[in-house]
Amino acid sequence: MKYFSTRGADQLLSFEETVLAGLAPDGGLYIPEHVPSLPDNWQTAWKDFSFVDLSVAVLSLYISPEEISQSELRALVEKSYSTFRHPDVTPLKELTDKTYVLELFHGPTFAFKDVALQLLGNLFEFFLKRRNASKAPGEQPERLTVVGATSGDTGSAAIYGLRNKANISIFILHPKGRVSPIQEAQMTTVTDANVHNLAVKGTFDDCQDIVKSLFADREFNTAHRLGAVNSINWARILAQTVYYFLSYFHLRRQIPDADEIEIQYVVPTGNFGDILAGYYAKRMGLPIGRLGVATNANDILARFWKSGAYEKVDSSAEASVPAAGGASDGKQATDASGVRETLSPAMDILVSSNFERLLWYLAFEGAAQGDDVASRKKAASATIADWMSKVKSDGRVQVPVAVLELARRDFFAERVSDEETLETIKYYFESDAHYIADPHTAVGLCAARRVAAQNPPQTHQVVLSTAHPAKFSEAVTRALQGSPSFNFERDVLPPEFKGLLERERRVIDVEAAQVDLVKKVIEKYAAPTASEVGTSV
Length: 537
Ligand SMILES: *Cc1c(COP(=O)(O)O)cnc(C)c1O
Description:
21 helices; 6-stranded mixed β-sheet; Ser/Thr_deHydtase_PyrdxlP-BS; binds pyridoxal-5'-phosphate
């Protein structure tokens, strides 16, 4: 299996090259040369597979055995998911007879990004080790310097994915004092020598700008072989397809007339990575219904499914007068770039980076059917390059009606306000299930409930649960403070979080949001040896 960019279908890369590159040089995202179909007997052969078995089965359809053998792949996957606390890795829980949550937060940082980043870290290490093993004695080993900015969630999952990996250093910038205490503690209490937390005096945008400048600096980039672990990395999408299969089998096992039901997945969505994995599963042949995109007030995707316009700023809302009394959403603070601050911060985005991959498939299906596959691929990539340059220059693109119809065939989208998010947390806590959802999961649960009334009666909904409620204690406490039976420490706080705030930390203070200061830190600590340690604060 080879991979090519959504913006140019000519050049083919191996899986290894794809994973190490992240983003394509033309600005596009890598996708597989074709979506593999499932083996004929998958329904019976895979039905009792564990998460690890299913990972090997699904991933090996996308990775040539010449690149990673079955036994190497199994070892990588076993190592990656041994860090999860639940035997199912991603367990399915029943909330009502038609509603289930697929809990993706049983990894080291209690959020769904662990599923992908635990594997990605091991893949990086595997590739570098192999490259270095073939080097002559005395030759410089290949190293990778991973640099990223975080407002909280992604940073800790990346750190836990890469801690203690050979030949890799990781530098994560966060805005000093502006991430939640739990998230800050999760990141800075990792004291492995290859992990460097930079507390930058400034905002999250400052941190992101610094990271962008570092990547744009060719000399610095090449000297340190900068790498990114952001959500567009193909390996992250691939790792996430597995739990759609696992939950499909788990759900069917619980239902007597499983052949009669339709399964509908609803996914709290930001950068469109989690739900895109479901789309790949569906394209491969997993028989599931439409996928539900659930957004918060940062609703570029919900607006796309309404109008076919993919635009950063809601042009229809700008023209309209706010309703009397003001919808709570309208008053929400936005940061300098226009992102709205919500109670589900991991979904606070302006554009959805992985959405480009879906657009490619829609453009491909919409391309002239008579042409051969190679020409249609080329045409699709040209269309995507055109659409994306419009988004860049005009802030928007309007896709043809036929493309929007294709999108509606496989997806629906709903926007959920903060108020509804809080109500939903309360609703499920007070329901018979007595379930405490985090605010991201609640966005998904709310969207699911909204569409449930229109679903055919045989529909069963699976809502992806993306974070443990303890990570977002403010929202959860706010939603449940009126419930007399609620006690945060007893009902939510996992034992692993107790004492976290008091643990030893390692963090490097960066006194101003300046690229040069960050460069100095990276120059000092990249390619660490055991004796090198950061500044203890
Ligand atoms: C990243 C994240 C999301 C959004 O996932 P995407 O793949 O970006 O759509 C949702 N919830 C939580 C808790 C996350 O960390």
